[in-house]
Write a structure and sequence with these properties.
333 residues, single chain, alpha/beta, 8 strands
């Protein structure tokens, strides 16, 4: 098509995929962590307390004391490549791009922090993406994860005059490809250990119990993932929830208390996997691989292994190629 004189250049129409993860501070220092926590904990999907009540608490005690403590935790997992969550997500986007080919533009973003969802959607639109699949990398759906990622994308679209067509990746907690990827990953990591675990503990990010009663499917979908893992693996699989915050009642059982109970029941060697996380991050590397390990050993456990997330492994890329390929049907055929 020949454009009229002076008409701005129009990129060729493309299909895009935006991988979305939770977020991370720009650095392991208190200032960066404070900016990150201010954004994260101001999200009404994350903290469901009326703003007029919550914001003075957040801006007062929490953002005054928590950033220094959290920065210390981030410093323990920070690498030469920066934040583990960021570089694993970036590597995943690269791997998915290679798998899907140049017919699809694959990018990545964080719900909180950088790169932002709005900035990447704008860049994808500028690159010619007229159809975009939003892919929050959360196997189990929750309002505090999947929904808020989509919220941020839709808010960014609200500022666009010419919006792309949008699809969203549904939860995949019970998808056979997801269970197969988890099984292959777990079996591979177990085979590399110098001991045989007595049991496997599947630890999921915690949520306030009230979210279950309000209709959030996260708990039920997590339970189903564990049931399918039990059917797929030969060793006993237990379940728990980690990452509590505040005084509200949270989903049970809690991870460290579950590890203590397992020791009391005779489990001396354990492996822990985190099937609710697509990529390793603070909650897996510091909370589980360091703190939960120490708690298990202090209780009398003998051998502890943390099994990494899918990250950007071959199992992960095969999984996402199948999930995304299905959702792109009709756009790329």
């Amino acid at each position: 098509m020949t454009l009229p004189p002076g008409h701005p250049a129009i990129p060729a129409p493309r299909v895009g995929v935006l991988l979305i993860n939770l977020g991370t501070p720009d650095g392991p220092d208190p200032g960066s962590v404070k900016r990150y926590l201010a954004e994260f904990l101001s999200d009404p999907r994350v903290v469901e307390i009326p703003r007029l009540i919550w914001q003075p608490i957040l801006r007062g005690v929490i953002l005054t004391t928590r950033p220094k403590k959290s920065a210390h935790a981030y410093a323990q997992v920070w690498t030469d490549r920066g934040s583990p969550l960021a570089f694993h997500t970036r590597d995943t986007a690269f791997g998915v791009q290679q798998a899907l080919g140049q017919g699809v533009l694959v990018d990545w973003a964080m719900r909180y922090g950088n790169p932002s969802i709005a900035s990447r959607l704008a860049a994808m639109k500028q690159a010619g993406c007229e159809r975009i699949l939003l892919a929050p990398l959360y196997p189990q759906y929750s309002g505090a994860t999947t929904a808020t990622a989509n919220d941020a994308a839709f808010a960014a679209l609200g500022a666009m005059r010419w919006q792309p067509a949008i699809r969203t990746l549904p939860p995949y907690h019970d998808d056979p490809a997801y269970i197969a990827a988890l099984r292959a990953s777990i079996e591979g990591h177990l085979a590399a250990l110098d001991f045989t675990p007595d049991a496997l503990l599947a630890s999921f990010h915690g949520m306030p119990e009230r979210t279950l009663h309000l209709g959030d499917p996260y708990h039920c979908q997590s339970v189903k993932t564990v049931r399918l893992l039990r059917e797929a693996l030969p060793l006993p699989v237990h379940m728990s929830f980690q990452s509590r915050f505040g005084r509200a009642k949270w989903l049970e059982p809690e991870t460290e208390s579950t590890l203590a109970r397992l020791v009391d029941e005779g489990v001396r060697n354990v492996a822990v996997v985190t099937p609710g996380f697509a990529a390793d991050c603070l909650e897996t590397l510091e909370e589980i691989a360091l703190r939960a390990r120490d708690a298990f050993l202090a209780k009398g456990g003998e051998k502890f292994a943390y099994l990494p997330c899918l990250n950007a492994t071959g199992e992960a890329i095969t999984l996402y190629e199948r999930l995304l390929g299905r959702e792109l049907s009709g756009w790329t055929d």
